[in-house]
Structure formats: C-alpha cells, structure tokens
Design brief:
The protein is an alpha+beta fold. The chain folds into two domains: 161 residues, Ribosomal Protein S5, domain 2 (2-Layer Sandwich), CATH 3.30.230.10; 96 residues, GHMP kinase, C-terminal domain (Alpha-Beta Plaits), CATH 3.30.70. It contains eight helices and eleven strands. The protein binds cytidine-5'-monophosphate. Cytidine-5'-monophosphate (C5P) binds next to strand 2 and helix 4.
Length: 291
Amino acid sequence: MAVSARAPRQRTIRVNALAKLNLSLRVLGLRKDGYHELRTVFQSVALHDSLAFRPVASGLRIRCTDPACPTDRDNLVWRAAEELWAAARRRGPMPGVSIRIVKRIPMQSGLGGGSSDAAAALRALIALWRVKLPRHRLQEIAARLGADVPFFLHGGTMLGLERGDVLIPQHDLNRAWSVIVVPSFGISTADAFRWWDQRRGGGPALANDLEQPVAAHYPEIARLVHDLRIGAVQAGMSGSGSAVFGLFDRRDAAAQAARHLSAAGRRVFITRTVGRDEYARLSRATRRASS
Ligand code: C5P
C-alpha cells in the first residue's frame, strides 16, 4: 500500500545560542523585589551552544553533551517550552519534542549560556509550532525566565537597565577579538549578588561591581583580570563570573594571551564580538528535514 502523501514530514529546527560578555556592570542597589538594580552593557560573542528541536509523538525530552547540564524542569529550555505553549493558547497538551543541546558555553560562568539556550528555545519553538506572538509578549516570557534572557532575543551591544531586562540598543562595538578564561570553578549568580550585598559601598570603581566581592572568595579572578589587562584593550569579569575576558584589536595578540593563560583545569576560548545584524543571522532558527 502506498504511504499517504499527506503524512506530515518530520522536521528538525536548529538554532545557535550565542554567549554574552558584560563589558561593564554597575550594581545600583537592592530592589524591593529582591533583585538588584543594574546598569550593564551586554555584548554578544561568537562562542555558542547549538540546539536541535525534533518533533516526537509526545513528551518533552532534553539531552545535553555536558553531563552537568540539567535535563529536567531545572533547565530553562524546559521552562521556555512550557511558557511558550501556555502563551500560544492552543488546545491540548504540548506537542512532543526532543531537544538536543551541544554545550560549549561553560555553565555558571557569567557568559549567559543557560539564558541564551532559553531564548534560542523560544525562537526554535515559535518556528516549529508556528506561534504568532506580539513582540512585547515574547519579551515578557523571556523576562520571566531570567533577567538576561530578553537580551538574547536581540544580541549585539545593548545597555541593560533595571534587572538587566530593560534594553536600550547601543552602537555596535568595533569588532574585537576576545579571550575568555573560565577557571575550574563556577559561581552562582545569587551568591555573587549576596557577596555584593555584604560589601556594598566599598572598593574602587571597576568595570564590574561584582568583581571585587567575587574575587574576595576566589582570588584567581583578580589575578586573571590583571594578567589579561596586559595587551588587552579592556579586561574584566563577565556578569557574576567565573569567566574573565579580555578584548584585543588583533587576533595574534589574543592568541598570545590565550597561550599565556592556558593552565590545567581552565578553559580558554578565543572568540570575537558579534554585532546586532550578525547576531540575527547567526541565531536564526533554521528548518531542516530530519534524517
Ligand atoms: O534572573 P536570574 O534567574 O538569572 O537571576 C539569578 C539570581 O541572580 C536571582 O535569583 C538573584 O538572586 C540574582 N540577581 C539579582 N539582580 C539581578 C539579576 C539577578 O539579584 N538584576
């Protein structure tokens, strides 16, 4: 018997989730909602996770190349799927989807990997389920998932205000090479802000107000920033750490710094900054027949 020509073709959606750096991060105070009032400059870089979304008969399944990455509701990708399905107001349970995450952005490093994966999941599932949502609704869902998820709907160079979720586009930074050094330890964002609370008011102004309180617990951070400043246009800790980055005009200078800072237990990446238009291209959900 002939196979029905109308049988739905299985489609896989693929999407890249790019990392971010915080070029600067000012903590202005504690808010009534328990979050901190921020003034931060986000910058996209080419380092990315890759995600694939394949329709299956039922259920939600996440697989990840990093064994430390949660594959249940603790993964923001899972919550992104739930939130999007609820917002789509379709009848019935969420369609089955199997999600594979190739993780390259280290976790708990202040590079926004989990948040970027969540925003990537929103883009992919909008394409897979053909969801139509006004822009502001999507922004709201992203902000509920995490304070820096909305940034990953836009990318490039952006000023982030309030919890970091109110965004003002900035002129793209001149393209720069970036060396990112991730020490052997990760840092929880909540801990970094708690350490800032305990020390508030003190310390000279650095590019990142969380850097000193975090370095008080992990002195390696201060040493890495110091070492990266040699030869870099700018260096600092990203977000709540533990990643530290330097920006360089030239690739060979970046490569030299990367060689110098390589050590057992550390991960060192050479990547480059990405402007808003390129971000849109690199992070777009693409449809491909699954094998
Ligand atoms: O929003 P997200 O879940 O990424 O934040 C993780 C934690 O970081 C929050 O629970 C909070 O403790 C802290 N945070 C904060 N102020 C911000 C962003 C995050 O205190 N603007």
